[in-house]
Amino acid sequence: MARKSKSLSAAVSAEIKANFDLNKFKSKKGLDKNIKFKDQEWIPLSPAFREVTSVPGIPMGHIVLLRGHSDTGKTTAMIEAAVSAQNNGILPVFIITEMKWNWEHAIQMGLDINITRNDEGEIIDYEGNFIYVDRETINSIEDVAAFILDLLDEQKKGNLPYDLLFLWDSIGSVPCEMSLKSNKNNNEWNAGAMSTQFGNNVNQKITLSRKESSPYTNTLVCVNKVWTLKPEVPMGQPKLMNKGGYAMWFDSTFVITFGNIMSAGTSKIKAIKDSKQVEFAKRTNLQIDKNHINGITTRGKIVMTPHGFINDDPNELKDYKNAHAADWSKVLGGMDFDVVEENEEVQDISHFEKEPE
């Protein structure tokens, strides 16, 4: 009897399924309009970057992390992205909490900026197709998140009709509100604030802009300094630690590492004459550590200059030298200078057991 009842139930179930239209059910519940993503687009970077990484540049609609030791190429990549964004009608939004920003360098790399001067010729303002904020108004992790969310809200209301490229330099340079109020830079509190404000909020809104239902596509690029943690066991491998914790790493789709683990991994290229010298380039390692877009991970060397990246190629380096030698000669006092290269190391801070305050 039980077997007969089971067979009857299966027959009824099969009949219901045969007359059930899943597409109509999805349409009735509004579930047929939220599955499409836009085709992947990129903010192009220099040909040299594309050559080394085998990717076009910065993927739009994603969280991108540029990490490495100091002066290894992170800012160069960030400014290249900003220049390219301007050229493609995307609005760069600079969030500079590291306070090492240099407008002249940005102009040298091609950022379109109008300089306002007073009657004495002194610079009083920089204007252009970008938004800029720094520590004058942004003092905490929560401030950074609130600023980004405010611009996204204005965009949604139609008051800011641009795709946005947020450029934060850098993670770990500001504490959370609780650290500020207690006058104690507590790393656990900061990491918690990063996870709450970005992992559970800002980053979700950035990635949702990839959906076809979003009229705009927004991108977040974060610069992240690192230091080297001493291995816990003898002969263990040193670990590259992200300043500010790993919250943004886990939420990132794309991670680019500049330099080496134990050192900057760079070598200075200089023009020298007598006791004077001009450092005009640096050779650095560059690798894709995380790529959830097309899965390509690469490693190679690239040369960074004050004007952007060039290939690690003797002919390109020679062309760059010839193009700028006249400018260097003004400092060196002549064109008959020598070109030398020297390796450099960052300060060894592998003895730190936690993030230095």
Tell me the name of the CATH class of the domain at 39-260 and 284-302: Alpha Beta
Please tell me the overall pLDDT: 88
Count all strands and give the number. 16
Radius of gyration: 25 Å
Question: Globular, elongated, flat, extended or rod-shaped: what is the shape?
Answer: globular
Number of helices: 10
Class from secondary-structure proportions: alpha/beta
Determine the N-to-C terminus distance: 75 Å
Give the strand content.
25-35%
CATH architecture of the domain at 39-260 and 284-302: 3-Layer(aba) Sandwich
Helix content estimate: 25-40%
The H/E string reads: HHEHEEHEHEEEHEHHEEHEEEEEHE
Determine the CATH superfamily of the domain at 39-260 and 284-302.
P-loop containing nucleotide triphosphate hydrolases
CATH topology of the domain at 39-260 and 284-302: Rossmann fold
